Amino acid sequence: MYGCLYTALTKEGAIEEWRRTLAWIDERPKTRDLVSIRVVVDPVIDLTDPATSPVLPDTPFLTGNSEPDLEQCRDLADSLRASGYVGILVPSAALPGGKNLIIYIDGPASSVSLEDGGDRISVTLTPNPQ
Questions:
Q1: Per-residue pLDDT at 91 exceeds 90
Q2: Which of 10, 23, 31, 84 could form a disulfide with 127 if both were Cys (CB 3.0 to 4.6 A apart)?
Q3: What is the pLDDT of residue 20?
Q4: How many domains does the chain have?
Q5: Share of the chain above pLDDT 70, in %
Q6: From the centroid of its chain, how far is CA 117?
Q7: Which residues are within 8 A (CB) of 38 and not within 5 positions of it... i.e. 6 or more apart?
Q8: Which domain holds residue 99?
Q9: What share of the chain is helix, strand, coil (3-state, %, to 5)?
């Protein structure tokens, strides 16, 4: 097991990812702060670009929700981390066309820099029906 910071590249993406998570964990509306961060991370592999991705960006398991899909994602992440990547840019499962950046926070400290992005808003969400 290892830790990661799962981020979205847009406000809309972050909201939809949180809404999707709410559907798994609780049916009650939740209020949380949505914050921005500035990220410097290297090296990053882009799974949304067919020219750099070891799998096609529209490969179903990348946005799937079944346990076999999640296991394939974990296996791919293990392989990419073993190749030295500390960040993976992935297609969003919650927002078609959206992108998420997964940052592995247990790597070398010199490979990751996070700063306050200056934005913070309160958001109340209800889960999407499944």
A1: yes
A2: 23
A3: 83
A4: 1
A5: 91
A6: 17
A7: 114, 115, 116, 117
A8: 4-9+37-118
A9: 30, 35, 35
